[in-house]
Amino acid sequence: MREFYEELVGSHPHMAAYFSQLDLARQVRKLSATLQVLVAFADDRRALGAEVIRLGVAHSRRGIGEAEYGLFATTLADVLARRQTEVPFERARRLWLVELKAIMETMALVDNG
Ligand code: HEM
C-alpha cells in the first residue's frame, strides 16, 4: 500500500499536500483495514453505510471531494490489480474500480451537502 501512495503522489504531485503532514505507515494501515472491511461486506452494502458516511465527513472537512476521489480510485485500482494473480489484470482493475467508485460516491455525497 505504500507503493500506492508513492504512485499517487508521483503521478499527481498536487495530491502530496494532503499527505505531507501524515505518518504514512499509519495511513497505509488504515487504508488496508478499510479495504479489508469493504471486501468482507461486499454483499451487504447497507451495513457499511454509517461508516462510509463518517469517512466522507472526515474527508470533506479536509477539502477532499470528487476530483481527489477520482485520482485516488484509478491509482488504487491499478496497484491492487497488479498485486494479485488470480484474475487477469484488466478484469481485477475493473472490479476494484466498481467497488471503490461505489464507496467514494457515498463519501462524496456528504461533500455535496
Ligand atoms: C475510497 C477512498 C478512501 C478511503 C477508503 C479512505 C480511507 C481513509 C481512512 C480509513 C482514514 C482514517 C479516518 C479516521 O481516522 O477516522 C482516512 C483519512 C484520511 N484520508 Fe482517506 N480514504 C479515501 C480517500 C482519500 C482521498 C481521495 C484523499 C486525498 C486525496 C484522502 C486523504 C486522507 C487524509 C488526509 C486523511 C487524514 C489522516 C489523519 O489525519 O490521520 N483519502 N482515509
Throw out a few tags for this protein:
77% helix; 0% strand; mainly alpha; Globin-like
The CATH topology annotation reads as: Globin-like
Give the total of beta strands. Answer: 0
Order of helices and strands: HHHHHH
Oligomer type: single chain
Rg over alpha carbons: 14 Å
> What is the CATH superfamily classification?
Globins
Q: Which term fits the overall shape?
A: globular
Estimated structural class: mainly alpha
Distinct small-molecule ligands in the complex: protoporphyrin IX containing FE
Helix content: over 70%
Mean pLDDT: 88
Low-confidence stretches at least 5 residues in length (pLDDT < 50)? none
Give the SSE map.
Elements lengths: L1 H10 L4 H4 L4 H17 L4 H16 L5 H17 L6 H23 L2
Helix pairs in contact: 1-5, 4-6, 5-6
The chain binds protoporphyrin IX containing FE.
Overview of the structural elements:
By secondary structure, the chain is mainly alpha-helical. The protein has a single domain, classed as Globins (Globin-like, Orthogonal Bundle), CATH 1.10.490.10. Helices cover 77% and strands 0% of the residues. The protein contains six helices and no strands. α1 packs across α5 and α5 runs antiparallel to α6. The longest helix is centred in the last third of the chain and has 23 residues. The radius of gyration is 14 Å and the shape is globular. The model has no long low-confidence stretch (mean pLDDT 88).
Task: Give a short overview.
The chain is mainly α and 113 residues long. It is 77% helix and 0% strand. The longest helix is centred in the C-terminal third of the chain and has 23 residues, at 89-111.
